[in-house]
Each structure stands twice: as structure tokens, then as C-alpha cells.
Design a protein that fits this description.
Globin-like; globular; binds protoporphyrin IX containing FE
């Protein structure tokens, strides 16, 4: 039997959207992330539902789901935010907590986090 994709093992778009919804809400209220003025500005005035959609689309596509990510390249999407390595890691911790909250098995948690960490160099650009 063929191995299921990560997308299938996670439970598809509904399960992925639930994880993204939760960690995205937690990022907005995380005091460690609100010290970055660009993130604070997005948290106060940005379009969070739209960002949740784009994040869900990205994860679905990377996990092998039947979607194509058509958003901005990650480096362009984050350039103006000047995200530090520590801020990136804090977002990773929020993602891990959301995966655990929904009882995603350890192996799938590690695969999701691995896929995200693989793109750290495109997202972090604080000098
Ligand atoms: C590999 C890790 C990450 C992935 C895969 C990711 C994914 C995305 C995607 C798909 C978008 C939308 C792009 C578009 O509009 O076309 C986006 C934008 C954004 N991301 Fe990330 N992101 C990551 C890391 C982070 C981190 C660490 C933060 C810090 C809190 C963050 C905060 C934001 C914000 C605030 C926006 C909206 C920017 C704007 O519209 O002005 N992202 N991200």
C-alpha cells in the first residue's frame, strides 16, 4: 500500500486550517512577538483572516495536498517585517503547541515543523 502524504496524515485542509487558526491567534497576543514594531502594526491593522488563508494554503501545498501555493515568495512576504531568529523560533513554539493541542502525532508534528524550519533563511532578515 502506498504511504499516505503528510497532508492526508494530518487530516487534510480542515485539520490544517484549525491548527493555523489557533497558532495565528496566539501569535497576535504573544508578548515576545509584539515587541517587533512591524509585527505589532500587522497585529493591530493587518488582515488576519487573509493571512490565515495564505498560511493554510502554504502548509497544504508543502504537505502534498491538492493545492498550489500562489502567494508571494516567502522572502518578499516577510522582508518588511525584519523578523529575528528568536522571533522565528517563538512562532515555531506556537505552531508546536497548536499541533499538540489538536493531538497531532509526534511524527507528523516533526514533519510540519521540519518543513517550516527549512524555510527559516527566507523569513529571517533582521540585521
Ligand atoms: C517558514 C515559516 C513561515 C511561513 C511558511 C510563512 C507563511 C506566510 C505566508 C504564506 C504569508 C502570506 C504571503 C502573501 O500574502 O502572499 C505570510 C505573511 C506574513 N507572515 Fe509569515 N510565514 C512564516 C514565518 C513567519 C514568522 C516567523 C512570522 C512572525 C510572526 C510571520 C508573520 C507574517 C506576517 C505578519 C505576514 C503578513 C505580512 C503582510 O501582509 O504585511 N511569518 N507568511
Amino acid at each position: 500500500m502506498e504511504e499516505q502524504t503528510l497532508y492526508e496524515r494530518l487530516g487534510g485542509v480542515d485539520a490544517i486550517a484549525a491548527v493555523v487558526d489557533r497558532f495565528s491567534d496566539h501569535i497576535v497576543t504573544n508578548p515576545k512577538l509584539n515587541v517587533n514594531p512591524a509585527l505589532k502594526e500587522f497585529n493591530e491593522n493587518g488582515n488576519l483572516p487573509g493571512l490565515k488563508f495564505m498560511r493554510t494554503l502554504w502548509v497544504c501545498a508543502v504537505a502534498g495536498g491538492p493545492f498550489e501555493y500562489t502567494g508571494k515568495p516567502l522572502d518578499q512576504a516577510h522582508e518588511h517585517l525584519r523578523i529575528t531568529s528568536e522571533e522565528f523560533d517563538e512562532v515555531g513554539a506556537e505552531i508546536q503547541r497548536a499541533l499538540a493541542h489538536f493531538n497531532v502525532p509526534e511524527r507528523e508534528q516533526q514533519e510540519v515543523l521540519g518543513a517550516i524550519v527549512a524555510h527559516k533563511h527566507e523569513v529571517v532578515n533582521a540585521s
